[in-house]
Design a protein that fits this description.
By secondary structure, this protein is mainly α. It has 14 helices and no strands. It holds the Pfam family FecCD.
Length: 325
């Protein structure tokens, strides 16, 4: 059993890092806000311009970035437990592609709001059924077979997305392309993804021991009393819901669900009772910093945040692989 300090000390450090990243994102941009003015706004004071800039423009976007980063990192951690493979994440296994197809189809139909969220979840769930069904075949699936099937299904969703873009009206094409690269510009309702992230983390904490056993393999898990098949489906469905919410909020943002869990396991070990909340905090912090960089690199123009995460994620993951060879 983990000691209390062994759990809470890393989480406290990550929470402080997240608060610092949020503070930086509120202060930095095409128009900077001084620390004194930012503190005054957070206390409910300050001038009207600063309050509008911080509370109405930057704060919802920063909270959305934190929520999306946490959702993707937790989903990636769950998929890596399920497949016992550090290269697994929602994008590799086709969940993101299915969610993107569902969301784009709703956009092309002129729908919005909750319908886009529902369509994204339906696409992710359809991808789940496809991957599990095809990987199972006439026998039981193995992690390597499931991973290969996910890669093929993800490639198929990529082809469908390309076809949808090719058939889309010209006036909608730039916005759809920008959204597919990861766009937090229109994220004005951060509370649903934040609430989902908090609820999922709280619900997964009691399953920490079962997830630890599951990471050792299904045979050992079954021998130790874990009901393996329902737990596997639970992991996949939860990862689908997390990915659908993240894709609906910010589009396709890669490498967060791949790099963050892998990095934390190297630093903190492999106890899921610590790794899952740590992924929520570290993933959120990473995406907040990446979005701040995307807003400020060529200000007043903005870059897609997915470009920044890819530029940061590729060399980081290669370095981690080199360190852990």
């Amino acid at each position: 059993m983990l000691a209390g300090r062994g759990i809470w000390l890393p989480l406290a450090v990550l929470a402080l890092a997240g608060c610092a990243a949020l503070g930086l994102s509120l202060a930095v941009g095409s128009a900077s806000v001084s620390p004194e003015a930012l503190w005054a706004v957070l206390r409910g004071e300050g001038d009207a311009l600063s309050r509008t800039l911080v509370l109405e423009l930057r704060l919802p976007r920063s909270l959305s970035a934190f929520a999306v980063g946490g959702l993707l990192a937790v989903a990636g951690a769950l998929m890596q437990v399920l497949l016992r493979n550090p290269l697994a994440d929602p994008y590799v296994l086709g969940l993101s592609g299915g969610a993107s197809v569902g969301a784009l189809a709703a956009m092309l139909a002129g729908l919005g709001g909750a319908v886009i969220t529902g369509s994204a979840f339906a696409g992710a769930f359809l991808s789940t059924l496809l991957v599990f069904g095809l990987a199972h075949g006439t026998g039981s699936w193995t992690p390597s077979r499931l991973l290969l099937t996910g890669v093929v299904v993800a490639a198929g969703w990529g082809a469908v997305i390309t076809l949808m873009l090719a058939l889309s009206p010209a006036e909608r094409l730039p916005g759809m392309l920008y959204w597919l690269m990861g766009d937090l510009s229109y994220s004005r309702t951060p509370w649903p993804p934040l609430a989902l992230l908090l609820i999922i983390c709280l619900l997964l904490m009691p399953l920490g021991r079962s997830l630890n056993v599951m990471a050792r393999g299904p045979l050992q898990a079954a021998a130790l009393g874990v009901n393996v098949r329902p737990l596997e489906w639970t992991i996949y469905l939860v990862a689908s819901a997390l990915t659908a919410m993240a894709v609906t909020t910010a589009g396709s943002i890669g490498f967060v669900g791949l790099v963050v869990p892998h990095m934390l396991r190297l630093l903190l070990g492999n106890d899921q009772r610590l790794i899952l909340p740590a992924c929520a905090l570290a993933g959120g912090t990473l995406l907040v910093l990446a979005d701040t960089l995307a807003r400020t690199m060529i200000a007043p123009e903005q870059l897609p945040v997915g470009v920044i995460t890819a530029l940061l994620g590729v060399p980081t993951f290669l370095y981690l692989l080199y360190r852990s060879r």
